[in-house]
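debug: dumping io for the single-chain case to check the tokenizer round-trip. Nothing else runs in this session.
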Amino acid sequence: MSIVSNIKSALSKTDSLREFMKFVEEHSQITDKSLAGTLMSTLTTIKFDGFRTMHKHVIEMTNILQ
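debug: decoded output
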């Protein structure tokens, strides 16, 4: 597999898989927190506009989570 160069430059250079996996785990937790914050912000600010049915509005909200 190949890795895009801008992602490759963000990865730390390690000699062991254990160190690399620890690095990936630490950064994925940050990403998960960021994603959770973005999702919560989107879900709390989305409003029913009255132009669609309530069913379509709820479907749109559930699609945000996927």
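debug: round-trip ok. The chain has three helices and no strands.
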